[in-house]
Amino acid sequence: MAGGWANDGAVQEQIDSSIEDAIQRARSQLPSGESLSHCEACAAAIPEARRQAIPGVHLCVACQTEHDKEQAKFSGYNRRGSKDSQLR
């Protein structure tokens, strides 16, 4: 049960919306297209098994791991801090 001016289910709607945004962001970062035979960052050969498992891969495992660590630092958009989301 929501309190104040919020509708019933407003909290769940906000949670669902945050999850949908995170899923869309993750899907937009997936590689697409043809896989490269060599890493675009370090020029190491990308194994055939990796290229078949992940269509559109451009990085070797080591470079992808570093890239993922850098991406994990990005917290994304905080919907709770958005004045617009508080007005809904």
Question: Can you describe this structure?
Answer:
This protein has 88 residues and is mainly α. It has one domain (10-87). Helix content is 48%, strand content 0%. It has four helices and no strands. It has helices at 10-28, 48-53, 61-72, 83-87. The radius of gyration is 19 Å and the shape is elongated. It starts with 9 loop residues before the first helix and ends with a helix. The mean pLDDT is 82.
Write the layout of secondary structure elements.
Elements: H1 10-28, H2 48-53, H3 61-72, H4 83-87
Could you list some keywords that capture this structure?
mainly alpha, 88 residues, 0% strand, 48% helix
How many whole angstroms does the radius of gyration measure? Answer: 19 Å
Uncertain stretches: none
- The sequence of SSEs as H and E is HHHH
Distance between the termini: 16 Å
By DSSP, the count of extended strands is 0
Summarize the structure.
The protein has 88 residues and is mainly α.
